[in-house]
Amino acid sequence: MKDKARLISWDIALVTGILLFMFLQLPGHYNLIVGITTVLILSNCIKNHIAAYKLSGKIY
Description:
The chain crosses the membrane at residues 7-24, 30-46. This protein has helices at residues 2-23, 30-56. By secondary structure, it is an all-alpha fold.
């Protein structure tokens, strides 16, 4: 159950980062920082989903 909650929390962080990047107009280089952070969260989400799939044979 803990791993499933962790997967969902990373997915929520990814969606939040995408929404911030798309809809929030930030001054200066903040869009770059949000974009890079979102890409890092995406790569972590992919890694976590692949690990969960290998353990159980299904995503959730």
